[in-house]
Amino acid sequence: MDYTPTIVIHGGAGTILKSSISDEQERSYHRALSESLISGNITLQRGGHALDAVTAAVVSLEDCPLFNAGKGSVFNRNGKHEMDASVMSGDSGLAGAVAGVRNIRNPVLAARLVMEQTQHVMLIGEGAEELAKKAGLVFESDEYFFNEFRFNQWKDLHGSDKTQLDHSDKKFGTVGAVAIDSYGNVAAATSTGGLTNKPPGRIGDTPIIGAGTYASNQTCAVSCTGDGEFFIRGIVAYDVACLIEYSGLSLEQACNKVILEKLTKSGGEGGLIAINRDSQVVMVFNTPGMYRGMIKNGKVLTSIF
Question: Is 206 in the active site?
Answer without folding.
Answer: no
